[in-house]
Amino acid sequence: MARPYRTAIIGAGSIAEDAHIPAVRAASKDLELVAVADADSARAAEFAARHAVAADYDDPLAMLAAELPDLVLICTPSATHAELTVAALRAGAWVYCEKPLCGSLADHDRILAAEQATGRFCAPVFQWRAGSGATHLRALMRSGRIGPPLLALCQTTWYRGADYYAAPWRGRRATELGGATVTQGIHAMDLLLWLMPDWAEVSARIATVDRPLETEDVSLAHVAFASGAQASIVNSVVSASQESYLRIDCRQASVELRHLYEYRNEHWKFTAAPDQPPAAPGWDTIGAAVAAHQTPQLAKVVAAMRRGEPPEHTATDARRTTEFLTSLYKSALTAQPVERGSIGPDDPFYRSWWGEA
């Protein structure tokens, strides 16, 4: 039997505790958690003691040099993701990094360059892709069984109050990178982009309507796809009645997903068009339930490592989402629609979602 991969976690906060530890434990035959690093040394030590991790560090670079992990899970504040990802790749590890993977196309391209230079891979945490409902719908749409997509609605209306923004890095452009768009709405928007044909143009607005933030607490966007399909997106952290809602209307059926943070099969609804329903039976049956969680996505990353192949969800694929986010912010800040492919290295928005040097 092959040895388990030496695995390390960088960032000992709630996302590591609630999502990544269960994912590592579920893959215990393949993963050995050998180290944790956190800028707060006491928190790192407490985390290590609680989860029987042999080594704890307050310096992630020292941890990478000393432990030489095969796999690094990055669970730190948003602005640190790109630097830590590149450092882990250069240290010889694969990376599983929380969203957002980075805060600019420039940083995303640095990650891709580090992958190419090292032969290692970075898998972004887009766990909503991993659920059985999403994989069923993607296969359904790719097969053409419900006709081409025509219209989509994508809604992330959540609530984040003063306790959430008490963390000093939240709500700041330099450390959280973005607001409701990228910190909350990114899950649903990435799922939409993963399911739909390539997007072609976005027109957007962002606003800070209530929270005392440097970033936005509300964003809205209209998206045109290369196929001619249209989509409307709403993201919010000011909505007391919280909901995540995705709807895709195809020529022969509508598919809806209504939930909050982690969907199950029963959260999906399939409706056939009354005059031209899908012909083949079983189109509206999802099958065996797989959670929209880090656990199944990490398991697939580990399986790809064993095969020596790129992960299913790659940093190369995720660049489409980073480009979309960049274009959304540029459109909102310039009051102009932005076409896909129009932001190059000479554009200030290439270096920052906010168009800053």
Structural commentary:
- The chain has 357 residues and is α/β, with parallel strands linked by helices.
- The longest helix has 20 residues, at 315-334.
- The model has no long low-confidence stretch (mean pLDDT 97).
- The protein has helices at residues 14-26, 41-50, 60-67, 81-90, 105-118, 132-143, 173-176, 180-184, 186-195, 294-307, 315-334, 348-351, and strands at residues 5-10, 31-37, 55-57, 71-74, 94-97, 122-124, 149-159, 199-207, 218-225, 230-236, 238-250, 253-259, 268-272, 338-339.
- It contains twelve helices and 14 strands.
- The chain is 35% helix and 25% strand.
For the record, the count of structural domains works out to 2
**Order of strands across the biggest sheet?**
13-12-11-7-10-9-8-14
Radius of gyration: 20 Å
Task: Give the tally of β-strands.
Answer: 14
The main sheet comes to: 8 strands, mixed
Helix/strand-derived category reads alpha/beta
H-E order:
EHEHEHEHEHEHEHHHEEEEEEHHEH
Q: Overall 3D geometry?
A: globular
Count up the helices: 12
Give unreliable regions as ranges: none
CATH superfamily of the largest domain: Dihydrodipicolinate Reductase, domain 2
CATH fold-level label of the largest domain: Dihydrodipicolinate Reductase, domain 2
Q: Taking all residues together, what is the mean pLDDT?
A: 97
Strand content bin:
15-25%
Distance between the termini: 50 Å
* Helicity range: 25-40%
CATH-level-2 architecture of the largest domain: 2-Layer Sandwich
